[in-house]
Amino acid sequence: MSAASPSLSPGRRAWRRFRANRLGFWSLVLFCTLVVISLAAELVSNDRPLIVRYQGQTYFPMLKDYPETTFGGDFQTPADYLAANLAATGGATAGAGAVVAGVTERCVLWPGAVVGTGEVLREAIRTSAGRTVLVR
Length: 136
Fold this sequence. Notes:
Layout: H1 10-20, H2 22-38, H3 41-44, E1 52-54, E2 57-59, H4 81-88, E3 92-94, E4 99-100, E5 103-109, E6 114-115, E7 120-126, E8 132-134
Parallel strand pairs: 3-5, 4-6, 5-7
Antiparallel strand pairs: 1-2, 7-8
């Protein structure tokens, strides 16, 4: 006679039954993967730059809030990086490969963005995919 195998705990039995359900198991894997990706969402979708170089100093706005006075402003309010970027460039910033055939006022154009002939873009951000976000 062979030795009796030790019985499994109720939790281990439930896990084995769950693993046997392929759809349920892979749904759990997908769900956990999406949760882990969402933890990095603030790095991808935010209103602040990751790194700022200003007058030879390096700043990390994602980790610390800096007042306007740090970047030459007058007040202790949180820095407005879009306004500072536009002021530093005279009112428009265009990334490499951006095509501007129209009129832009206080705009940020991502690399590869296009502003067509006859188009007027005011106080906006234009992406390379053609999406426009107003920043009024």
